[in-house]
Amino acid sequence: MVNLKINGQDVTVSDGATIFEAAASINCRIPALCRKSGLSVYGSCRLCIVKVKGRPGYVISCATPVEEGMEVETHTSELCRVRKNIFELIIAYHPFDCQLNCLTCGRNRECELRKLAEEIGIGELKYKFIPKKHDIDKSSPSLEHDSARCITCGRCVRACRELQHGGILTMSGRGPATKVTTFLEKGLGNVDCVNCGQCLLACPTGAIQEVLKINQVLGAIADPSKLVVVQTAPAVRVALGDEFGMEPGINVEKKMVTALRRVGFDRVFDTVFTADLTIMEESAEFIRRFTSGGKLPLITSCCPGWVKFAEHNYPGLLDNLSTCKSPQQMFGALAKSFFAHKMGRKPEDVVSVSIMPCTAKKFECDRPEMYEDGLCDVDFSLTTRELARMIMCQGLDLKTMEDGEYDAPFGISTGAGVIFGVSGGVMEAALRTAYEKITGMELKSLEFNDVRGLRGVKCADIEINGSTVRVAVANGLEHACKLLQQAHDYHFIEIMACPGGCIGGGGQPISNAPQLLEKRQNGLYATDQTRKIRKSHENPAIIQLYKDFLGEPLSETAHKYLHTHYHKR
Amino acid sequence: MQEHLFIKKFIEGGPGPEFGNLRRAVEVGRNACHEELERSQLVGRGGAGFLTAKKWRFVRDKDNTVLICNGDEGEPGTFKDRYIMENGAFMLLEGMLISAFMLKASDVFIYIRGEYQESIEAFRRCLDDYSAELEWYRSAIDPSLDITVVIGGGAYVCGDETSLINSIEGRRPNSRIKPPYPAEKGFKDRPTIVNNIETLSNLPLIIRDGGKNFASLGVNGSRGTKLISLSGKVKNPGVYEIEMGKLSFKDIIEGFGGGMRDGKVKFVIPGGISTQVLAADELQVKVDYDSLRTVGTSLGSGAVIVADDGIDAVDVACNVADFFMRETCGICFPCKEGNRQIHYLLEQIRQGKGEKHYLELIKDVGRTACLAARCGLGQACGNLVGSLIDKFPGDFLSRISDVVNGNGGGYG
Q: CA-nearest residue of chain A to B345?
């Protein structure tokens, strides 16, 4: 432990802590912009400078380790003045003019610049605004980068490189030409970007945003000739409340269902239903491969970020990827086939919308493999944040919504499908079904604790019928890369591109709430715990669907609608 | 007036068949060499004026040290390293080998400004000419000695040693966070010493004459001689060698520069564009590190640029601000945004669209960058412009309409 004084107050922190962390431990918040926990130190914003007694000048608190006996001042009048000046200089080159102000910025509700302005105490702005051209990269189906709102703090660049093994975003140019861009300025849609959106979550301003589809969806709802169905992904329900000031991690699915109905969707369904369906298909696929010497390990394919990453970087493993479409796409395929038929509607009259914690899902629904007879499975994929905006735009407040129930039949789901939203959840759900299918016996304890939690890589050996199934789970592509070095040690691997799984997806509300991912994770596990049915193969609506339409898992019909293929990029 | 010929004399003496001072260094041993360096009180000639022996102390006990010789010479108005490389590469190479020997450095880099084609060729030729000496060094001292010539990509910020290291590693040239300092973790995380060409060129002389004799030249804090790059409106611009602390700027301008081409001296930039200008009435100040520090400026790299009274301070300020704005690495906010703002405000003034309080804003940004920027470039970016505003307020005010129209008072 190290003892030091901050603003005259004694502080004791562990060795290796930074001054910034030591100050935070006594609730002294030093303003900072380029710092983001979980990412490397960058030292560019210089807002976190502090005075250390006996050292010349100032040091940046985010990069300076504490030392025994150190005496630190964090808020002297000169420090406050310098911070104010630095901040105002940033603002002077940020488009706050009337053509492009906060009113049109997607991050206006939780913009870090606005929060910092409060912390730093900005009153009037003394520097001159310097006109700035903006130049929006619209090449990607998922993400847009607006260089005018970008302050080049490098957080997106670091998130991409350090969390996602991406290196898609980079700094180019120097001086006034410094900007965040992609390889040869080709644009996010033309490089190996997997659309995970972790850059967006890392961005303190509105420079990176998802490609908005709200207006298209509202247009479809307003069109009386269309039957508009919506599905909601598991992880959305434990995050949407954040946007309405609700307790992080609580499950708001019942209020969300009512809100979706009031927004005007004709049917409100649940992606958890097709998560159960995914388990039926994927566990059957696993059992077939495992028992008849097929290609192993089997690697999950629910995550479109991971799938594209594999297509770019692991072409040798593409045959290991499950051929199952993701739950989003399975849902879309059923909506335009089985459901349309059942409703007596033409497939082209059904508009299928998904609410996802994800930006890569926008890319996924545009994949050419995801079209059946010229129609796409999913027409529009919205993020959790877009849903929140859409609800607000209709004059609704989620908090005040009555409880509602999903529509049958695609709203009937199990606890196994719910936990798809956390890292390890697909694996756990698949094991619950695979175990019972292989052994024919009831699984005593449904919780596979070894694959739960927010660690980047999790492994377990599962005994099934006397043989050991070696499973592994990774979340965050950096961790996935580490795990895949030993891919062939395992029989079954789950990979989710985002840290924590879909609960930490790039489409989720942006929040600095402490233990955010833990709370969302706990929310989903608690929901699983309270469900009466917790195994996918016991879902009565699933059983009925196989009886009425699909036959059995891996049948020809199942292949036509529920399976896909991949290609090297 | 005569130049003090010390480095120049060695160079003019021409290359010998072998490196006598290197042999001598090897003969007396590393420790003795380090003692001589300590006694010499040599300070780095790149601009920061740090004691070389003190810098080297950080790595003396370390293995695997990398030596980098900085010949990027990006400072406007500086051309003395070019003089050394083109005329006395053999002296530099001997200095580098002595340094490599003293630091036990097997990997030696020399980073030469890309535009300096002649310097690059001269140094490469020198490596060929002295291949026998290099072989001798490899057989007698270190078989794995490797000297790599790196051609600079043209970034001014590479004058900052951590940016230079990034550039050699093939990365974007921007400064690193210190600590760790290069002596601890530099090139590929190895202990690294970066020194200027002129600094290392002094090593053969220190070994030849002994540190004590070397230190008999100059004054306290500024031992030895300094190469001055004299340019601007003087009759005879060029590289001149002076004994530090003995001559004033007036002496240099009149004695070596041959006086002004026309007009009178308006101001002198004493050490490159990161330093504060000296007005005509301050030219009696002696040319050494401490004397210049006393008057609030710095000897920098020794780039003395003389401006006559036909030159407008606003034009100079705009030019310098434009340079800094374009040459910031673009990472740290006070420097990147500060220089953008300084440039913008000065341009407004130059075009007659400025307001009086802009002058205070410019100085305020300069102070902020000085206190908060990450590397020397940003910390010093407001020096020259701020001193022009302080010393020649009339030039600025005459471009500001509310003052010209009689609505404002004097600057202050």
A: A128
Q: Where are the beta strands (DSSP E) in A110-153?
A: 136-137, 143-146
Is A174 in Cβ contact with B371 (below 8 Å)? no
Q: Which of A444, A408, A446 is nearest to A429 (CA)?
A: A446
Do A58 and B371 lie within an 8 Å CB cutoff?
A: yes
Amino acid at A361: K
8 Å CB contact between B333 and A86: yes
Known catalytic residue at A124: no
Residue-wise pLDDT for A548-567, tens only, equals 999 999 999 999 999 999 99
Beta-carbon separation of B341 and A41 below 8 A: no
Check residue A318 and report its DSSP letter: G
Residue in B331, B333, B344 nearest the CB of A90: B333
Domain ranges of chain B: 7-215, 224-308, 313-404
> Hey, what CATH topology would domain B224-308 get?
Ubiquitin-like (UB roll) (3.10.20)
**A364 given a catalytic annotation:** yes
Cβ pairs A/B, distance under 8 A:
102
Interface mutation target, options B371, B375, B381, chain A, most CBs of A under 10 Å: B371
CATH architecture of B313-404: Up-down Bundle (1.20)
Q: Which residues of B touch A92 (CB under 8 A)?
A: 337, 341
Distance of CA A493 to the CA centre of its chain: 19
Instruction: For chain A, list the domains and their CATH numbers.
Output: 2-75 (3.10.20.740), 136-211 (3.30.70.20), 215-562 (3.40.50.1780)
How crowded is residue A276: how many other Cβ atoms within 10 Å of its Cβ? 31
Chain A residues touching residue B157 (CB < 8 angstroms): 174
Nearest to B332 among A46, A78, A177 (CB): A46
Quote the CA–CA distance of B180 and B192 in Å, as a whole number: 11
**ipTM, two decimals:** 0.89
Question: Across the beta sheet with A9-13, what order do the strands follow?
Answer: A9-13, A2-6, A71-73, A49-52, A59-60
Q: What is the pLDDT of residues B276-301, one digit of tens each?
A: 999 999 999 999 999 999 999 999 99
